[in-house]
Structure of DNA 3'-5' helicase:
Amino acid sequence: MNTDFLKDLNPAQRKAAEAIKGPVLILAGPGSGKTRVITYRIAYLVRTVGINPHRILAVTFTNKAAREMRERLEKLLFGSVKDMTLGTFHAICAGILRKDGEAIGIHPEFVIFDADDQEKLLKQASIDAKVDPKQFPAPKIAAAISQAKSQMVTPEKFKETGKNYFDEIVGRVYERYEKMLSQNNAVDFDDLLLKTVFLFKRKPEILKRYQDRYVHIMVDEFQDTNLVQYELVKLLAGGHRNIAVVGDPDQSIYSWRAADLRNVFNFEKDFPDAQIHYLEQNYRSTAKILETASNIIADNRTRKGIKLWTENEPGEPVCLIEAYNEQEEAQMVVRETERLTGSKKFRLNDIAVMYRTNAQSRALEEAFIRYGVPYKLVAGTRFYERREVKDLIAYFRLIHNPADSVSLMRIINMPPRGLGDKSILEMQSWAKQHDISLFEALEQSSTGVDKPPLAARALASFDIFYKLIRGFIAESKTLPILELFDHVLEKSGYSTYLKAQPDGEERLENIAELRTVAEPFNSLLPGDALSPFLESVSLVSDVDNLDETEGGVTLITLHQAKGLEFPAVFMVGLEEGVLPHFRSFDDPAQMEEERRLCYVGVTRAKRRLYLLRAFRRSLMGGSTVNEPSRFLASIPAHLTTATAAREEPVKPLIPLQKKLYDYAERPAQPTIPSAPIGGGIARTHVKATPPAFKTGDQVKHAVFGDGVVISTLPVKDDTEVVVAFKTAGLKKLLLSFARLEKT
Ligand code: ATP
Ligand code: MG
């Protein structure tokens, strides 16, 4: 038996990888090799035990993680592992439903609706259910429906168990929404999981086929599975019962998406014969970073108490930086980035900046752009959210599935074909009266079977559109996908339309980018390519925008950073109200989740960690003065240093177009020097009414010394004072914090 490659594992990891009989629970902290164990376990199964990859199912949290695991496996196994089922729950379920969904009435050519499509459908469903979308906005209803679906609550059950008026409203919309999804041959993201569970429950013979096939099942990041996902795992593992799940309860950060930490604890109950393995050695981070992380998470109460140690060197202290505001914070990140890469010890790709909310990326992006430092943003599904990208995808979806009325509505007048809203509404209600899809209505109207009562001009426009799509449908069966792509773009008039737009060039570039997404499918037979192309487009999750080949600093939310690692990490916004998020203030369970989120961020770092905060922050319209994050208070002072290495300020590569600050001429040091943060929260709010100051007043500051007031400006609940200090230079201070004295 060939087991040479297992020498890459330590004894505990190796034991876990080789425990291939029966249920196995691997509980271990960050960086201890959980993902590595799964990968090697698969290699062991195939290479040593001789299991056919076809009989293996492995679930990862993101598509990116699946890709990485596949690449790793191909190296370990010297060849392709195409036959293995490896992907996210959503991708795996999409595959099962395409193959077997028909047994519960799901059309094999179903489309997957994303959040945007879903919102449109919900608006329509609300109107139909006589619910005012202004009073009950679609995103709110969408969240309630998603929550219900992840707990496997059907519209009927929802209606029965509703507790209040809002539930009643949601129940009404939910019912209508489900009908509309099926009329559109569509499923939403939650459905992918839910319908697969329904399929398995209603058709035991189909479930049996999958149970027989998958001799070995593995799930990474098990702590962030939801109820439906766990149900799926239990169903699939019901045959051979060789199921290994790995997770870290301290890294459970998706409860807002109905992930349920209790799954980890229930696993032991549901599989009482489960072996439990612990991995305790961390290979990722320096000892100081690991100790920082351990101290932060130690303050949570609900823990399994997983141990973690490392043989790695102590490394540099964790750097705590306080900036005046979010612009200075961003500037410090960029400068330090330049210093790190200038030292040649780090490349841009080695560095990540992590934040709590997407909105925080704006200030960072601005600084990176101003300083000319390349960065890549892993925010939202940005590319796929662009209008032109969505428009073109809507064409392909409609060609693929003419019953998809949401896509049809998106492009019926895009590019503009002279169809007024009124005519479109008429056509819609005519379709509804006849109980046919919108596309069928166009067909009947065009072929003259029956015509809606519309002006001849409108009918002619509908007719042109119908024939256009019909033509594309025919072409989709005969042309390779790239040719079809070009035809759709040209013949629909969309490219001409885009060219005439002020930002047309940029938007055409995005279309070109979408074309490259279709490229790998060009070798497939005409007719076979559209479905996998659309599927790959629907399933791109946020982290999939990350392109390792391109050099640049990664800007990423803490949630998206899960499972990843970077040699250097900057975490910004370590302030009360930001991290922890203010919404968690009066909910102890949520506060624990915020702490776990902080822990996840800290444990992404291999060699360098920077924790930044701003004294004053403008975020999403408001401006606040925030206390340092309570999580900083958990870090012992001996692990940290409070000064950024800014002795040798780096010149920006691109000269600043305008000043970053109105107080820029000051020496490069924190505006307000911080007391040691590790020992406790540094600054306390002074409640006493501060004395009034006016321009020209001579003042004294405890740290900056003597100075003179240059200006005063009343701000919300406070006064901003600019003081020219004799030695420290110009400083902008908030009066209530500054403890200035008149001299
Ligand atoms: P997370 O909880 O963050 O997902 P993890 O437990 O999945 O972490 P891995 O990502 O598998 O940890 O491993 C962390 C790092 O340590 C990786 O770079 C991995 O290659 C390395 N590593 C793990 N085990 C070993 C080992 N036995 N020898 C050398 N390197 C190892
Ligand atoms: Mg992992």
Summary: Residues 9-10, 13, 28, 30-36, 248, 251, 283-284, 563, 565 surround adenosine-5'-triphosphate (ligand 1) (CB under 6 Å). The first strand starts at residue 24 and ends at 28. DSSP finds 27 helices and 22 strands in the chain.
